[in-house]
Amino acid sequence: MLLYLWVETYKGEEKVQIYYKDKNEYKVLEAKNFNQLDTLYKKFTKDFGCKFDSKYMELIGKIYLRIQSAAKPNISIGDKEYFRKYFHFDEQFNNDFYCIIWDIEFTKQIITSWNMEPQKIKTKDLMEFVDVESIDQLKLNEVRKLKKYDPVILVSYDPINNPVLIDGNHRVYSKKNQPNLYLDAYFLDDFLSIECMAGDVFRYLYALHYNIIKLINYDLGNIAKEDLDEMLINIK
Question: 3-class DSSP state for residue 56?
Answer without folding.
Answer: helix
